[in-house]
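Customer ticket, subject: "Can you confirm the structure for XdhC family protein?"

Message body: Hello, I'm evaluating your service for our small team and ran a test protein. I'd like someone to confirm that this is what the system normally returns, since I don't have a reference to compare against.
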Amino acid sequence: MTAPVEVLELVAQMKATERAFVLATVVRTVSVTAAKAGAKAIIAADGTIVAGWIGGGCARGAVLKAAREALADGEPRMVSVRPENLLAELGVVAGESRDGIRFASNMCPSKGTMDIFVEPVLPHPSLVILGASPVALSLAAQARVLSYHVTIAAPAADLSAQPDADAIIDGYRLGDLNDANRFVVVSTQGKGDEAALRAAIATRACYHAFVGSRRKMASLRAKLLAEGASAAAIDDFKAPAGLDLGAITPEEIAMSILAEITVERRRGQRAAHQSASRE
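Agent reply: Thanks for trying us out. I re-ran your input and got the following:
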């Protein structure tokens, strides 16, 4: 059985628009099952099946649960839906994982077995850089090599050359950004610091950083607090940005920031791996 053309077309469209989703594929069936090997379904980030079909309620709950987990940790998984007597023969219970396979119970009268591969397809991590400083431009170029979706926001007059970025915003009004694991760095270095920080504060991200000294950040913090900004939001910023590598040049500073972002980005995946190894 081949996947319907509309499923494959939608996969391409969702990848192109940087949307998170799960592709679930039936890889094996035994006995009577509603869906057969090769059947596919696309599960959106909100948990709805937007295209395709992988069977009815016998498998749906287990697959949707696995899809949520896959979107959270970025890891694919195998789900095996089997009748209770076959689970008992294996010595496992519904919800248990063994050798990378999550087992679920098939309570339907058909009593068939379905193995479904659940594969998360996540947008590229998003790096939003506010400013047109040498550090900002170097950070954008290095991040692109590492497959980040890079947005640079800065007044057009501040850009002396075309930056290496996926998106360029004139000024600091960020508007709608792609839905992804997002990292925000303010690297204005004296040109529009306050405006850039106000925009960054209002932008949801798992990492906020300011390229500048602690003293400079403390001065800006006082000004922003006087304007009514949230103290907690301001204090969420890492300043100075980057790991302490003794960096001096713009390129080295950019590298130290990307190193720090990498630590933050992989933190959740390391936790997921450690949790899985204990199961």
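A couple of notes from the result: The longest strand covers residues 21-30. The first helix runs from residue 5 to 16. Feel free to reply with more questions.
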